[in-house]
Amino acid sequence: MSQPQDHDPELALLEQAFEASPGNLALAQLLAPRWQRAGRWASILEWLAPLARSADAPAELRACVQQARQALGGHTGHPGNQGQSCDAAQNPAQNPDPKASHEAHESHESHETRARTSATSQAPAFLPEPLPQQDDLQALSQFAPWTAEHSSVRLADVGGMDALKTSARMRIVEPFARPELFRKYRQKAGGGMLLYGPPGCGKTYFARAIAGECGAAFFHVGIHDILNMYVGNSERNIHRLFETARAHRPAIVFIDELDALCKRRDQLRHSAMATTVNTFLAELDGLGADNEQLLVLGATNVPWDIDPAFKRPGRFDQRLFVPPPDAAARAAILQLWLAQRPLATDVNDTAIEALAADTPDFSGADLKALVEDAVSALLQGVLQGESERPVCLADLQMSRRRMKASTTEWLAMAKNYVEYANEGGDYADIASYLESSAAVTSKKRFGFL
How far is CA 23 from CA 11, 17, 53, 84, 197, in A? Predict the structure, then answer.
């Protein structure tokens, strides 16, 4: 086609189909109004004008070709008359004079040649401006590390989860802080680590704390930064991300919702995603590059959907289960969300610890919602005429009775994977948590048992 770049991906598919079958009138009828709106008059004359001369060409197609000729300063006859002359040129039975038919044909061909070589084509004033040739969606993503303000979180700011923080410090923080010691034992800082667990439990916040402890450049990458609708651009975005991160080492790349990018290839519906997965694997292996002091952190709620190739040693071989916060962490989270609010005297440390003990398997997001619900109910009463008062323990307890843990469904699903798909021990941490959890106690039975 004369102008291959276009905003509309559907138009690009139509053009490819028409180029493969240029005599298809149905495709020509679909292309004509789109090219007309885009002001692509030369394309109309080059590809559609020959079809407009056929006896069965629709009137709309002939009118479109005629309008293109008018836009390019050519023939200005009426579309109907033009259609008749075209028919006569194509059908010798209607034009018994072969010389006149030949002259008409040459006249049309010479006019189309002049139209295609016209350098000053202008669309009529009543049509919209031609679409820009450069599609913004084709542009590759730009990656930059977070500022110091975003990376000011430390592991001490994470309430509770002492065992998880100890594991992260040994596996991640110390190799970055003391690279000489680890290099002596042929251990490198970097690699890949997968954070997994139920939603709302602070995986993203925990990753920020790790970056703050390491003093490393932190790249927070969403799936929208990687995936692109144009074939090949997703792979280029992955390569650009790793090249940028290597230039800022020591660096941590955090990819949220990793399962959308690293989905099992036997579950992919589109073959284009398979090449994206392969490119990501190659970048993790550091083929042709050095990934030392480059840590790739991934977070997911469905670790069982991650392609097994990502879990082998050297890639995301280190995995940390981020469970719902324990009692101490829940108390710290409640304290955080109750701070800077007017509180009654009965909302003290003892009461908050008791409330934390009464919220097993609540995520951090659940606890925030509990406090917000209690405050919203109080404000609703004030707006209805009640007197202003501080938040009391009864408000929090009533909100607790209205809520349940959002992690229960995830834990029930995880329990099935632990029981029936844990041959390699990938979900041993989940199994240990479930043994001490009250969220999922009954074993599902099948049939009539």
Answer: 17, 11, 12, 20, 57
